[in-house]
Amino acid sequence: MSGIIYDARKIKIYEAVQALCALAGETEEWANGLWSELLTDAELMEEMVYYLEHHSFQGKMRIEGYTLIDLFVWQMDLYNLIADSGKNTESCNKETMVLRAFRAMSGLKNDPARYKKRMSDGFGMDKYL
């Protein structure tokens, strides 16, 4: 058993992400999808660790000119449109918007044309993310 090094950082991050997803009302399946995306993208994982530690965005990761801050604002705009409120009310769960910004960043990295089109053209009358 010599030579085994145990690094609990990822376990702690996993637990924090799961707790944040539960707080935001996301399903376990959704949370596991986010975790898979974080595991395959070191840069996105770094952004998540920063968010968990500081409860704010680092804004270091940039894809197609967009940062997590941009995607968070986009998620808030989508919420306001869908909720038909014109502004984000106290019923808007900001943690949900943060988590969706992380998923959107992963989507933007994997399919930039699709996400750039969504962000510039919108979803249409009957579509949302």
Beta-strand percentage range: under 5%
Total number of helices: 6
Order of helices and strands: HHHHHH
Computed over alpha carbons, the radius of gyration is 16 Å
Gross morphology? globular
Largest sheet: none
The total strand number stands at 0
Structural class: mainly alpha
Terminal residue distance: 48 Å
Uncertain residue segments: none
Q: Average the pLDDT over all residues and give the rounded result.
A: 83
Helix content estimate? 55-70%
Question: Overview of this structure, please?
Answer:
With 129 residues, this protein is an all-alpha fold. The chain has helices at residues 9-23, 28-39, 42-54, 68-83, 94-110, 112-121. The chain has six helices and no strands. Helix 1 runs antiparallel to helix 2 and helix 4 (68-83) crosses helix 5. The longest helix is centred in the last third of the chain and has 17 residues, at 94-110. The mean pLDDT is 83.
Layout of strands and helices, then pairs:
Layout (H helix, E strand, L loop, with lengths): L8 H15 L4 H12 L2 H13 L13 H16 L10 H17 L1 H10 L8
Helix pairs in contact: 1-2, 4-5, 5-6
Quick structural summary:
This protein has 129 residues and is an all-alpha fold.
